[in-house]
Amino acid sequence: MQNADQRGDINVLPQQISANPPMTATSAATDLPGKPYPLSSQKSLASHATAENQSGEAAVHPSPSEDKLLPKQQDSEFPPDTGINPYLTMQKSPCIHLTRAGGLRLSNTIQAHDMAVSGLAIHPRKKIVATVSDDNKWKMWAIPSGEAVMTGEGHTDWISGCCFHPDGTKLATSSGDTTVKIWDFSKAKCTQTFTDHSHAVWGVSWHTCGDFIASCSLDHSAKIWDLNSIRCRTTLRGHADSVNSVSFLPFSNTLVSSSADKTVSLWDARTGLCVQTFYGHMHSCNDATFNLKGDTIASCDAYGIVKFWNIATSSIRLSVDVGPHPANKVAFDPTGVLLAVACNDGSIKMVEVNTGKVTTLTGHEDAVQTIAFDQSGEYLLSGGSDATKKWVAHDGHKSTEMLKFANLESDQSILEKESSKSIEEMKRLDRIEPSTTPTITRKRSSSSRRRTSSTSTINLVDTIAGRQLANTRIKHFIVKNFRKKECNKFVKGRNWKNDPSDINRCTCGRVESWHESEHMPESSVISEEKWDSKFHTVPKPTDAYGEIEFFSNSHQRIERAKFIRVKDDTDPSMLLRLLQDYWGLRKPNLVISVTGGAQKFKLVPKLREVFRRGLMKAAQSTGAYIISGGSHSGVMKYVGQAVRDSSLIRAGDGGEGLVAIGIATWGTVQGKHDLVDPEGSFPVRYRAQFRSGDIGAPLDPNHTHFILVDDGTIGRFGAEIGLRSKLEQTISEQRMNTFLSAGTSGFRIPVVCVVLEGGPNTMATVHAAIEQNTPGVVVADSGRAANILAYAYHHTYAVTERNINNEEIENHYIIPEFEDEVVDRIYEEFNWTKEKNEPACMKCLRQVKQCLQKKSMLTIYHAEDGDLDAAILEALMKANPSSQKTQLNLALTWDKMDIARDRIFCGKKWKSKDLEPAMMTALIDNRVEFVKLFVEHGLAMNEFLTKKRLEELYNSFPKYCLFRTFLNDYNYRRSNNSSKNEQPSLYIVGKLISNLIGGRFSNPYASYEEEYFDQTAAAKDEADCDVQVYDSDSSDEDDDKSDNREFDDPYQHVFLWAILRNRPEMAFYLWQKVRNPIAASLVAYTLFDRMAISAESVATSDVATDLFQTAREFEELSIGVMNECYNMNEENAMLLLTKVLPRWGDTTCLALADNSHSETFIAHRCCQALLNNLWNGNMEGETQSFFVTFATVFPVLLLCTNYVRFRPHIDRIHKSGNRNVRQQKPEEQLNSTDIELVAAEMVDQEVSDSPEQEVQPTIVNRTSSSKKQLCNFKRIPAFYKSPRTKFTVNSISFFGFILLYAYMILCDFRSPYPGVAEYILIVWTFSLFTEEVRQLVQSEAETFSEKLSNYLSDLWNIADVVALCFIITAIILRFIEGTREAGRLIYCLGFIIYCLRVLQIYSVSIHFGPLLVMIKKMVSDLVFFVIILGVFLIAYGVSSHAILHPNSPFNITIIQKVFYIPYFNIYGELFLAEIQ
């Protein structure tokens, strides 16, 4: 931050200064009605007033308070929020012009700046408006006359916003140079410059007291500046993206901000804390503002959605859609009944706040960037990218000057009248140079600066060194391979005999002096020779290349596009290499060549919208190149608008924008001389604005790349046609990026020609395209050439003929009766006459006929036919009727499932091998419906899925995804030297899956371990060698041999891939195909749950929420299947839970549910029944715990009583079916021992690949004759093998340990040596210690750190460790004479912990368990109440003790009394001190 070191200048325009008296302190103070707002620095408005010089010249004198401002370093104080807003008393009832359509009209238009107007502010006391622009200047104008008052310079980059000081004596501006400047009119200079922002600053807002100013920036923050101490008082942090606007609520310390993170936030300026955040926008928020009452906030976003927020309830009052174009700015009128919205389509939307009714104001030719009402509501001012400032007035205004002003549209002389309000006179000072402090020129966001995530912009900006290196590489390639053309012979113009003015102008378009002075020192005039570009030009190194930086769209973005000037016979392959290798364009899947009218023409709104949406959709879904003429006129302008809108939408979603390549004639580009730089321009600033007197049109700012074709002429169109056709042909010869082309010559990139309007040259272009078998889509009703082709298309008849190869072909001809009508239409559409243009008309007619002979190459599109992208696909289909693979590739690329099903697969048989490449593409592109279609039509998954293909699927993961995060973390833990970009092998993927699932889930790809380590060792050996030999043939053979190995269940492996790829729909379809749906759904639940937990820290909350929701859906699927199985056959359902599944990590469904903590699944009745059976073992489940406990202590009871009942002995019978098993009677049900035995026998059972040979689960059947009671001598072993008995023994043992422990510390703590009880306790403690060590060592984790982490994750294990530490410490201390008593004390602490350990035993009880869970939750909630209670206790205790016992000496009893006495006072012990 700097003070006055970085300065600017203010230039007062004396010829515009009126002779009105200056503003005095008295008048300034009385401008506001009601109670004035308190100024924190106690400065009166009089100190800011200016005086008039005695000489009558404009004089500005520094105020004394301002002179003292600079050295003052004391912070200002925020005023209390008790000030009354005096503007509320000025509110009137809504004017009629605000409540009826047509009540507002355009009153005046000013060409305010050379570039786009980015912001405006209205003076709080005078009818003056300040404007800021991309030309780095701010200006002030009188309202309504439009007279210029003053201008200011000093910013080094575009200015984004401005705001007047509350008393009107200063102006604050924000800029893309990362600074905020304060301009003092009394000193006529910049007095302060704040530079703490690290990125472009979007806007500023003054606090009403005048001592603070807020600013917002691309650096994700807003700042509040103190003008007294000249520093940043507070930084408002909380937004996750660019903060696009900030605004103070008048006469309050509250301000509102809007951000590209789609939120609107309220802040307290005193604390810098966010007090409320409003969620609801789905796109970047561009602006937010208060109404005058301060009870409503209006906000707008990049999709044209306007929302009204109720501040009191934090809810949405109203939501209005004024899109689809972005909304840039919103402004309330003074009454608060109307909201004006500045839109990107050049219109202003007026929204009635109460009803949501929308009316539209037009007048701007480009995007409206800023808007504001004056204080009275009489004028609505707006500024836009067309560099104009407009204001709108209502028809009902009755003042004299307004009546005159209302006639501006009919009498422009009214502009000369003087305004009725005075403008403060100011003197013009000497120019003060701006600071020479270096500033970095910053590029705006890749989309609208108020729409686009700044994160993506920062990621795209490389380091300076990296960009210089890349630019040097591009420059070297361009200088070496590309040339321009220049005329080297002067040939008089063709019409010089008829037009003498052409005698000194060459046919190339340049004057004779140009040839003589620079390029033809020995020129020879050739009068009769015909000028030809091939013979009368010479190639020279190109002198125009690099990057264009468009700056015509102020608040949208500074567009950047790459460009190059080349000669018309340049090798197209070199251009393609430049596009893809040096400019970094991806290989397209489609080329859309748009041709049509080059001059301005009007398109009906419906057709324009359909064309824009269809072009966007077609290019986005295919990753296409859009090729057009590249100029900012005609059809190219419509293409640019479609590209712009697509870029805004996709940038907001984090996606890539479209690629639009403009191929234009160099000689017809306006402003082409700005692009010339032999060293290359990186970048060059270019204004996309029409220049009067120049031939041609400027470049369109929305195209991404430009190829400017030079044939040596200027002012002549059509030089690019030949090179454009060759380039399109060269691109089409490439092969598409698709698995459909794997192992074959591949599919050529299709090219389609889209025709919109157009003239004779367009007709010739379409004819050439059809002759090259390039399909064309003609947009009917767009005008001229398109209308001619559409009419002729619908009036043809077909004739079957034979070609030179004696093959039957179908040709189409115009019906003879309509041929004359076609001719008449040609004359009419092209505005030709028969006398002058008959040869041209006949040529055009021949072209139409030849196009129609290949009628299948033409598709006529009407706006009523649906989307344009469907018509483009239809044209490509018609052009390739015999190639099913090509049609399948097109349908798959465009995701047109209905076309594939109805046209490609209908009645046709496909081989499984032919569908495999398409299946690979469908899986990677997430085409679920196509995957279903391929499987239904015979794709053999066992043949499709090979090891190589599965690895390709895992290698297709994007660079930044959860799977890559897991993989990088695993590689880092495994080896610090592992590369983060290492391609995953199946073995590593399996290890990753087993780690995510946890438990004893084994690696599903463990069989590839040896191969993985062999490859790793080979890679290390190759890294150590300087020469690497690669034999592609041999490696392919090896891959083919290894790929012959099939997976047991291919759907399972693709299912796991879909889960890790986060493809829920694909995973759900594949889940229906796997062989064990319960295990599959539990694995899916586990993986999605683990991914959701990780996404909470590395991704957005929306991603984590979606993953949690998907996990719950798969959990519900597992429960649903389990329910069906249990209803069908209970015994087999239980077997499903305990059966070991080799395909699913050698684990069981029950273990999977336990690892995933799926409490809902475990709570299922089947799981509960199984767990009860396993828990009781051979005992009957109805056996009471009392008898089990007695039998455990006195086993003789098992022999002589039947209180403990056992299940009968069983005979196991193997069945081979599941569904045909007869229903067993209740008395024939399986017991838990049977299930355990059967499950144990099935652990090592191999499962066949085919379903027919699969060994079905063994079920157990018992008849009444097979019932046999256990012998007496078998009862005791069976009883003690039961888990229930084991638990009872452990519980009795633990209670015995507690009793022994209590006896020892109460009665047998002997000195100096332990007694018998203590020795027994020491031995018992050692056994407990060994048990804890066993649990730690036998943990399922691999490394010791993971084992320790898993062990300590259990709270009871931590309690055991602490208790053992206490006991061991006590044992050591009790043998030392001086610490024996301390040892006894520590013994007691260990006893307390072991007593609490009893709660774990009670937790398994059906009665005690729920109560303990309730207590646990209640205690966690009680902690917060205790904290609150402690606050009151401290407050009362300290105060009461200080009053009753003043000046007490400090000791420990004071702290005790502060807490002790107030606590017992709560229970009524008011005289506790006297009792003590």
How would you explain this protein's 3D organization?
It is a single chain. A hairpin with a 3-residue loop joins strand 12 and strand 13. It contains 45 helices and 45 strands. The strands form eleven sheets. Strands 39-34-35-40-38-37-36-41-42-45 form a ten-stranded mixed β-sheet, with helices on both faces. The chain has a five-stranded antiparallel β-sheet with strand order 1-6-5-4-3, with no helix packed on it. The chain starts with 8 loop residues before the first strand and ends with a helix. With 1476 residues, the chain is α+β, with helices and mostly antiparallel strands.
Q: In whole angstroms, how far apart are the ends?
A: 65 Å
User: How many beta-strand segments?
Assistant: 45
Largest sheet: 10 strands, mixed
The count of helical stretches stands at 45
Low-confidence stretches: 2-7, 14-72, 96-102, 394-464, 553-557, 651-655, 741-745, 976-980, 1023-1044, 1210-1267
Q: Which structural class should the secondary elements be placed in?
A: alpha+beta
Strand coverage percent: 15-25%
Sum up the overall morphology in one term. Answer: globular
Question: pLDDT average, as an integer?
Answer: 75
The strand order across the widest sheet is 39-34-35-40-38-37-36-41-42-45
Helix content: 25-40%
The rounded Rg comes to 42 Å
